[in-house]
Structures are given as C-alpha cells and as structure tokens.
Amino acid sequence: MAMEGRFHYYEGYTMKEVTFPERVMYELGIETLFVSNAAGGMNPEFGIGDLMVITDHINFFPEHPLHGPNFPTGPRFPDMHQPYDCKLIALADELAKEKNLKLQHGVYVGVQGPTFETPAEYRMFRTIGGDAVGMSTVPEVIVARHCGIKVFGMSIITDLGGFDTPVQVSHEEVQQAANAAQPKMTEIMRAMIQRS
Questions:
Q1: How confident is residue 4, by pLDDT bands cut at 50, 70 and 90?
Q2: Angle between the 20-27 and 138-146 helix axes, to the nearest 10 degrees?
Q3: Nucleoside phosphorylase domain spans which residues (predicted)?
C-alpha cells in the first residue's frame, strides 16, 4: 500500500484523522511502514539535499495521537524505546554503501506548524538533541508502533537553520530541494523492499 501525501495536523485535521491511514494499514495486515518527510536541518554536519535516516524522534505536537480511549491494537501505555526499527536502519545503511549514497542519521523533532522555525527555535531543538525538524511523521509513527507495525523513516533535509546567519525559507525552495533528493530516497527504499 502506498500513499500519495498525508494529512497534516496544521491543515486542521484532528490527530485521529491524521493517523487514520495507519489504522487502516493495521486492519489490512501491513507489518512495516516506511515514512518520509521534508525537514529543516540544524545539525551543522548536514547540507541541503542530504538524506537523514530517522533513528528517534521528539514529539512537540500539542495533541497526542493516542489521547482518548485506548484502541485494542496495543497497550494503554505503549513502549517507545525503539520507534524506528534497527534492522531496517542497518539494511538501509548496507544498501546505501553498495550504491555509494551518503546517509546521515539523526533525531527528528515533530512540531505542529505551519510556520517554519525561528532561529531561536532551531537552536533550542538542537540543544535538546534534535537534528532535523518537520511538521509530520511523529503521530503516524506513534500509532504504527501502538499497532505493532515496524517503522523505517527518512527525512530529506530541505533547509538549514539555527546557525550564526539566519536563512529565509520559502515553501517553494523546500519543495525544490525535496524533489531533487527524492530519487535517491526512492532508490534506497525500493531496494529495501526488494531485499527484505
């Protein structure tokens, strides 16, 4: 099953609506979820167009996707010590090495948006352990893990922030950077599906 786009919290959808596709995936028997996003990088080792394998996340959304009555797909208090599957991360690294593609690794910070981050926000997210920040992914991953679905995530670094010189960001520039890097991400994910 493949989705073209997603529902974003900043568009006014509730968390239940944002994560409804993962509930459908569970009912269809899907066992592994691949998620991708465009993200702003605040790790000084990152460059625009880099691919970042998500190793963990920090949830800054104001509403939790599991808030309310517990769905019987998982426990009331699900464990989140490994939201992104280590074996899938290792497979991505192996394939990237074979294909001579560079992969970064890092922690994704999920925020509600729809504004891009201020320089101070970028610096704060970096200080608390974030490498990239975006407006999606975290709710879907939480619900997928609650359902017992394994997750692999990748961010395309489309802009940089939090450094000495503030950089103005536009949605159009983010889209251009994402479109340029997408073929490399697709190549790795396609190879992962074939190999696993």
A1: confident
A2: 30
A3: 4-193
Helices (H), 29-160: 86-98, 119-127, 138-146
Domain count, the chain: 1
User: Can you say how many angstroms the Cα of residue 87 is from the centroid of all Cα atoms in its chain?
Assistant: 17
Residue 74 has pLDDT above 90, yes or no: yes
| Placement of tokens 């017992």 in the chain | 148
Reported as a single tens digit per residue, the pLDDT across 75-134 is: 999 999 999 999 999 999 999 999 999 999 999 999 999 998 998 999 999 999 999 999
CB 21 within 8 A of CB 3: yes
> Distance from CA of residue 147 to its chain's centroid?
18
Is 144 contained in some domain?
yes
Q: How far is CA 72 from each of CA 11, 76, 101, 128, rounded to the nearest angstrom?
A: 28, 9, 41, 33
Between CA 11 and CA 34 the distance in angstroms is: 22
Q: Is 99 left (phi over 0), alpha (psi -120 to 50) or beta?
A: alpha
Domain-embedded: residue 179: yes
pLDDT tens for 144-181 read: 999 999 999 999 999 888 776 656 667 777 677 677 78
Domain that holds residue 153: 32-65+79-194
